[in-house]
Design brief:
The chain is an all-beta fold. It has two domains: 159 residues, Translation factors (Elongation Factor Tu (Ef-tu), domain 3), CATH 2.40.30; 73 residues, translation elongation factor selb, chain A, domain 4 (Thrombin, subunit H). Helix content is 2%, strand content 38%. The chain contains one helix and 14 strands; from the N terminus they run βββββββαβββββββ.
């Protein structure tokens, strides 16, 4: 039955003519060119697990080179430790917005593993990777994935296993860049800075420095801003024709010459 092993003696047979493979029903396992994987960094790996870096990816019975793009899912009500694996193999949700990560974050399961990530770092409640393989591999959903740096010095006293996880979404279409990736909602966070020019009333400010004269400010209406003094508000609309804009602060605020920050 599945999982059992057996030895078979075949006389006068050249073992070089036999390669390792999988026995399954037709079409059960596709040839995968890329995959979306739920991942966790192995805390004993001391190097950075960076986006766009190449790793040796072990999946099924194969080890191939792959390039990873990491992204995280953040909740508004807080985060939970990455050691929580309750939904490790849950289906991938294409309708959720994810935040692009320049590298995979590590969270220690307990104090015995060393210092944890600084409390000032906002941690995702789940991390994922778009893994693109240099050649197709035969695998399916929920296969275990291990990412390694096997080309590092084998004599060094370091862990070469960088991350592990489960395959959630196999991308068997060779044209996945055009057919699947447009559905993947990964955003990059950008920071812009402007200056408060004057106060209109107790709730409204006129600001400048974020937009050019030809910019369409209406596209940014409703986006949140934060004053350097800590008050939060949102862009209410444009002001004039020179790129200035109005900011609404739903409460009292300090003034003057405070900076504005906007995330796009």
């Amino acid at each position: 039955m599945q999982g059992d092993r057996a030895g078979l003696c075949v006389t006068q047979f050249d073992a070089k003519q036999l390669e390792r493979g999988l026995i399954c029903k037709p079409a059960a396992l596709p040839s995968v060119h890329a995959a979306i994987i739920r991942v966790s960094k192995i805390s004993y790996f001391k190097g950075a697990v960076a986006t766009k870096a190449k790793f040796h990816i072990t999946i099924g019975h194969e080890t191939v080179m792959g390039r990873a793009t990491f992204f995280g899912r953040y909740s508004e009500t807080g985060t939970r430790p990455m050691s929580d694996k309750t939904d490790m193999t849950a289906a991938f949700d294409f309708s959720t917005e994810y935040l692009y990560q320049t590298e995979l974050l590590a969270v220690k399961a307990n104090a015995a593993e060393g210092d944890s990530v600084s409390s000032s770092v906002t941690l995702p409640d789940a991390q994922f990777a778009l893994m693109e393989f240099e050649r197709p591999v035969t695998c399916g959903r929920n296969f275990i994935v291990i990412g390694s740096k096997l080309d590092s010095d084998i004599h060094a006293n370091t862990c070469r296993l960088a991350f592990h996880g489960y395959l959630l979404e196999p991308l068997s279409d060779q044209n996945y860049v055009d057919t699947v990736l447009p559905r993947l909602r990964v955003i990059k966070e950008r920071l812009k800075e402007g200056v408060v020019e004057r106060q209109v009333d107790q709730f409204t400010l006129v600001c400048r420095g974020l937009f050019k004269k030809e910019s369409k400010v209406d596209a940014f209406v409703g986006l949140k801003i934060t004053l350097s003094t800590g008050e939060a508000g949102f862009i209410e609309g444009g002001f004039g024709q020179s790129g200035k804009f109005k900011v609404r602060i739903p409460g009292k605020f300090s003034l003057f010459s405070v900076l504005i920050f906007i995330y796009v």
